[in-house]
Known about the structure:
By secondary structure, this protein is mostly helical. The protein has helices at 4-30, 44-66, 79-99, 101-115, 121-142, 151-164. It has two domains: 4-66; 79-164, no CATH class.
Amino acid sequence: MTTGRTLRLGESVLGGGLAALGLFIAYETMNTPGAGRGVVGPALFPYMIAAGLVLVGLSVLREAFSGHIAHEAGVELDAPAVLVASAGLVAQFLLIDQLGWIPSATLLFMAVAWAFGNRNLLVNALFGLALSGATFLVFNYALDLDLPMGSLIEDLVEPADEAAE
């Protein structure tokens, strides 16, 4: 049986971990060369994420120390769903250099949709492809920030570029 004390301890660890992760992201962003020091630039979103993590972590810590527990009966974890979503994230991390943003983000979308219970692979693949393609276009052409095209695709595109010259 889970007691209120162990739940408060778990929430304290979670809150402290979130706050520490936020501080770590802020520190790493501050020390990243070329991140820029302007108001809007490549460092804006990591700083926003860091601030959000710190605020949420401190809020969870406050609730844990005040005795308010989010789930009196404990937290039910859907381990298979967490594993599938995590595997999708790891796959994207491992494949993004070779396959590029669009295929790897599509695979991640499909894994997360599967983890949330959507078993229609074709629809998930089409939505993932549309969303990752749209983000690729916006980042690469509208914002002039390069998402990786993938070494396999670059190898196919380079000979065509050389033949056109």
